[in-house]
């Protein structure tokens, strides 16, 4: 059973705010894992997601990104969706983070695409530009090892919480 409900709050560079109610799976050492079940079919940059699929979100206060591991109802990876971010704060009630626009999609076959760079403001603040560049390079250059870590952690959480059985 999950540890309880938690609200994920995504803030954009332009000040918009989006909230998602999730199940808290883990929370320790400046990091958290949450579960969200997709309420409807969706297309994520060409990756088909189905109603009932799982999204296990990983958040860290000390990393410049968060990750959503999308899993089919039979436990197969559909994709990893990485948001480059900053200002992540984790408490017992909520996870708040700021979306820095640029995202990275890694599909089930390991193909990697950097997304939304064209949506960045023409002249982002130097600190934001540096955060994006460093996180992008880290994720792209280390994606194999990172995917392995995320898959192992998700497999453990799925087993620990019997997530597939509760679909």
TrEMBL record:
The keyword Hydrolase applies. Residues 44-120 form the DUF402 domain. It holds the Pfam family DUF402. Keywords: Hydrolase. The keyword Electron transport does not apply. InterPro entries: DUF402, FomD-like_sf, Ntdp-like. Coiled coil: none annotated. One of its GO terms (molecular function) is hydrolase activity. This is DUF402 domain-containing protein. It comes from Exilibacterium tricleocarpae.
């Amino acid at each position: 059973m999950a540890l309880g409900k938690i609200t994920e709050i995504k803030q954009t560079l332009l000040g918009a705010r989006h909230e998602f109610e999730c199940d808290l799976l883990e929370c320790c050492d400046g990091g958290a894992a949450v579960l969200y079940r997709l309420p409807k079919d969706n297309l994520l940059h060409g990756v088909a997601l189905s109603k009932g699929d799982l999204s296990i979100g990983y958040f860290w206060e000390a990393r410049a990104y968060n990750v959503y591991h999308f899993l089919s109802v039979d436990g197969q990876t559909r994709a990893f969706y990485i948001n480059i971010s900053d200002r992540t704060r984790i408490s017992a009630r909520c996870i708040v983070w700021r979306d820095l626009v640029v995202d990275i999609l890694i599909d089930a076959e390991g193909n990697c695409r950097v997304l939304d760079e064209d949506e960045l403001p023409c002249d982002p603040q130097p600190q934001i530009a540096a955060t994006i560049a460093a996180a992008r390079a880290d994720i792209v250059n280390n994606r194999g090892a990172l995917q392995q870590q995320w898959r192992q952690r998700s497999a453990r959480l799925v087993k620990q919480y019997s997530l597939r059985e509760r679909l």
